[in-house]
Amino acid sequence: MVRMANKAYKNIADLLTQLYLVDERPWLVGFSGGKDSTLLASLIVDAVLSIPATQRKKPIAVLCTDTRVEIPAIAEIVEGTLSRMHKFFQQKGLNIEVNLLKPPPEQSFWVNIIGRGYPPPNRTFRWCTQRLKIDPVTVFVNQRLGHWGEAILHLGARRAESSTRAQTMAGRESRNGLLRHPDLPRVWVSNPIEFLTTEEVWAYLLQKPNPWGSDNRILYKLYANASNGECPIQIDTSTPACGHSRFGCWTCTVVDRDKAGEGLLAAGDERMEHLIEFRETLLEFRNPDNGWRDNRRMNGNEGPGPLLIKGRRELLKRLLKLQEETNTVLITSEELLLVQQLWKAARNPDDGWGVSRILNKQRGVVMNNDINELNRLREMEEEVTHELSIRADTLRRMLAKVEESSESHRSHGLPDDLLNILKDDLYNTTHQEEDPAIH
Question: Are 167 and 238 in contact (CB under 8 A)?
């Protein structure tokens, strides 16, 4: 068994070395910090080290995504590993760069939930994967492809991880052992450790220190404590969800139970207690029966819709309390400003002071708002709404939506958003006329 495993490792290393030398396309390496991606990175670095320095010309970029809601223990390991990698690559002159990719603030988890009112994700509406994981990688890759033309993306996916993954990997177009990326036509995907077993992965990691100067005992202990697996770097929507075996976001409401978090708490990571409790809060707010969600969707159709403004306010209060309990920055000042902007474009919009009032009450922090400017805008809004015969709230929402689109430099979808706001105005006006209690 040991000889067979050693032969498998050598075959992978030989194939990587050959691919490096005969194929000129630059490499991208997906790294999540878990066992599979750590093995992959180790094999690739060892392969590059085996090549004479004069021939190490291929640019290589290690890509890691930080959703900013990762389990703290995982985030700490990843941060330390990336730092050691960076120093080692520079010392050895390997032409390998390390990139920690993050979603832009306007697409962060909390801006989407507390700002836009997105319900916490479930299996049928897993909006988080696209915004927090896939999009940052796609933006980076597309930027590089403008200079490179094509690239090869190495991933630590293994068929033994799940039958779904095995089917996905087997069903893709292959050319010389490379799979065409489903969404990036100029990227070819390599899965060097595709056929290794979990036992073979751990055997390698525990017997051989990483090239960048650390062993994997801490990582192994983390897995043992959590009794689970990693959440792989996401490259497209066909990549299976973390499912029942995952190391990923502590906020994840796609799974029924956060077994990894529970395992870490049982092993002594006290931070997980408050985080697990808050995950239950997210489940509470997602349930339409608990009164935190609108009974109309964003397009105006009947059905569970976004979180109501009262729900978003309450969730922000609880998140700020959690931030104090864990002594961890969970939401930034920039995100808070974006939340306030989005609240002004919501149904039953905020007056522009909601976030500031919550911060002032809970933390004694006052946001930078100009009261004179706000009052001047309110007077202008009242004049315009009277002339156009629309509700003041409707105008404020439309102005906030246009401002949001302008700041993000994205006009896609703006006409539909404005149309839905006008539909809300018509809906509210009609129901007021039909309700005799209002007159």
Answer: no
Residue 419 within any structural domain of the chain:
yes
pTM: 0.78
Total number of domains constituting the chain: 2
For residue 146, give its domain range.
Answer: 2-104+123-216
Is the CB of residue 379 less than 8 Å from the CB of residue 406? no
Looking at the structure, tell me whether residues 62 and 158 fall in a common domain: yes
Q: Which residues contact 356 (CB under 8 A, 6 or more apart)?
A: 340, 366, 367, 369
User: What's the angle, vertex CA 289, arms to CA 287 and CA 291, rounded to 5?
Assistant: 95
Answer yes or no: are the C-beta atoms of 103 and 136 closer than 8 Å: yes
Closest CA to 37 of 156, 133, 209: 156
Q: Which two tokens stand for residue 424?
A: 């809300």
- Dist CA 95 CA 244 (whole Å): 37
Q: Which of 31-45, 76-90, 242-256, 329-343 has the lowest mean pLDDT?
A: 242-256
Question: Rounded distance, CA 205 to CA 207, Å?
Answer: 6
Lowest mean pLDDT among 12-16, 52-56, 165-169, 410-414: 165-169
Q: What is the pLDDT of residues 293-329, one digit of tens each?
A: 999 998 888 999 999 999 999 999 999 999 999 989 9
Exposure of 172 in the CB half-sphere (CA atoms within 13 A): 23
